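Quick one:
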Amino acid sequence: MAEQTATATVEAPSLLTTEYRTLNYVTGPLIFVNNVHGVAYGEMVDINLPNGSVRTGQVLEVADDIAVIQVFEGTQGIDTDNTSVSFRGEVAMIDVSPELLGRVLNGTGKPIDSGPAIVPEKRLDITGSPINPYTRDKPADFIETGISAIDGLNTLVRGQKLPIFSGSGLPANELAAQIIRQARVKSGEEFAIVFAAMGITHREAAYFMSQFERTGALERVVFFMNLADDPTVERLLTPKVALTVAEYLAFEKDLQVLVVLSDMTNYCEALREVSTAREEVPGRRGYPGYMYTDLSTIYERAGRIKGRKGSVTQLPILSMPDDDITHPIPDLTGYITEGQIVLSRHLHRRGVFPPIDTLPCLSRLMNLGIGEGKTRDDHRAVANQLYAAYAQGRDLRRLVAIVGEEALSDTDRRFLRFADDFEKTIVGQGDEGRTIEQTLDLSWELMAGLPMSELKRVRDFIPKYHPNAKTEDVGGDL
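Output:
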């Protein structure tokens, strides 16, 4: 018996499709089919309606002889008596080609623009293949977003996953569009952006299209568009399809690829809807208990591979319900990713754009992508000094509310002004992009308003970069 068990083999799936008319239950986006045989998890399905139309689905669960299928186009109008189901014998796939650059596709990867038909070079499984930990290379090198609060203080590194935590009504889409327009890598390297928009409105879709077309950015963008009135279940495929295209461009075509996913909250809401339809035991706030695992299968597809020139870098954007950073979506995202960029409602109300609250922001891999030969030798020191001075200025604001500005010393007043100028100039740069050199030079101009003796974290670079320092006078001032 032991020998028989050891030599058992799994039969290859048959290429012949079998049609079933045993559909017995419909709920939400799911249908249940009885008496099925040889069906696999994740297998693609055709749902044939009596009127001749065909919808697409995917096997979500198989238990005994019952298959649970999620229907991408929705289950409205499906008649359990006259509808048949055919199993394709393959998982969800997408046709990939370099011709995808500059094209607009729906959430399942089908072109929806007026461009020519795409001639596929390959057909790939959208679940992708996990990167072997042995061959995974550490993130390195710098991706310039043109946003000073990111480039200077929370640098994005190739192969990193750095989410943006937004809130309802905050300009996350405007920030995403600006990053897509401005992002670049070192000269001489090919760069591409894969943008997956999930659950966006028609107005938001029109905004993105106008921004990309006006600036010419669409030529290097693969734009996946899942609208708010599109089927909810389609939203679950969109990030997987987008990341499959990104992996193809990065690891087979040697491109540096930046993947922008917006909005991951809409993805998680779709996940919760399907989980509710399956009558699963809910976890925190009704989200499924496996949401952490599901999100990790998306975020962990970022990275670099040893011996390959390309890289996949992720910039997921999510809206925190009620601005609650402890909500399950940002909470679990923070566990998986390497830092976060947090948008501030307070700065937004004051007209600061982009309203990035730098103090709770973090890029854990920043040091791998900055320094001499990558950005500039003073980058780390300048970032440390800006953080320290801005934090001190923020603390003094609370003190002024109690004792008044007249009670402050001259040095404290200068830190107070520094905090205001920092928000107006470094953070509130508006729609104009900046190079990393411009960001660092502007930071030195801002620090020139502080006493030189207070600039302890940039002491070694004062003779070289401080706008008011003369080499022979620096030692005495310090």
